[in-house]
Fold this sequence. Notes:
This protein is an alpha+beta fold. 40% of the residues lie in helices and 12% in strands.
Amino acid sequence: xxDAAELKRRAARLLAEHPPTTTDRLDFLRARFDxxxxxxxxxxxxxxxxAPRSLxxxxxxxxxxxxxxxxxxxxxxxxxxxxxxxxxxYGTEEQKQRYxxxxxxxxxxxxxxxxxxxxxxxxxxxxxxAVRDSGGxxxxxxxxxxxxxxHVARWAILIARTDPDVPKHAGxxxxxxxxxxxxxxxxxLRQITGExxxxxxxxxxxxxxxxxxxxxxxxxxxxxxxxxxxxxxxIGGMRLPREGGMIAPAARTxxxxxxxxxxxxxxxxxxxxxESEVARLTAERLRQQLVAGQPGPEGAGMKLAFARLNxxxxxxxxxxRGEEGLLYDDWTMRRPELVDFVGRDAGYRxxxxxxxxxxxxxxxxxxxxxxxxxLGLPSEPxxxxxxxxxxxxx
Length: 394
């Protein structure tokens, strides 16, 4: 089994053969992937060495200390956190070889075509259709919404209805969609921040070869659960230093601006600081549990905490700053490639955090998941489980 000492030797060899100061960034990332130091827990030949997942930090520390470039994970988070683990679990060998390397190096950005105007919280009710033609290709028509990074994405993970005559969960199939197809139209959705990192995507006669189907026909809901569970962990379980994330700028303002302090604000800041630290340590525990297998519904709890804390902390920060908290730096319409919470001002954090309880699964739906799948409480009565999708009231 590959241990920490062996990983350090491999990292040293990579650095010797591809010095970061003289090697092109993309060439270095490709070499790192080929050396099995991208995801050490992935199989050999797919960016890993079949090593324990917990040893990734050993590689990351060695390369960071040497000034090696990273793959800009915030920009390609959907690919890393959602597409990659799903392709690894359900993809064919050809699919894994084709997509994982350029995904990890950032050469190809991914987006997620799941939510629809009439199927957000109730995702299984989606209506985008995929019909197989006589030549074996799938022809897709429909609309998706709230799609982060669609304006810069090369590929998308897509779920579509392939059988309307069975109950809604049973008639869905999972595809890999080429965002450069002429039938794909991406339109910006301007948000409360003034920017448009989200998009709506219209699919008109998009042709997808059956070779880009992930999993079996009609089994897309089960495949999508892998994506969704990993998405919640990616959002709510990110690795942070102590006093990292949203609590950092609020605590910094408190220390640097004593004239803004009040007893009430002090008590609220202390409470949120402690809760942020508890969430950080819980996320670390969750990542350790991932070593034993795929993420489960526990990620829903972490994502719930992430959304609530971000909204409460950003609200406190705006209040702490008083009149300054009402200022906003720039309402210019932009289409950014990533979300930068801590690099912007308090007004941006306050406005942008409102989306945290919607994106990646609404807090209301996640509360149901925690209740039913973590706590084992009785599920809510549902009358549509055995009804064909075409017969549902819409």
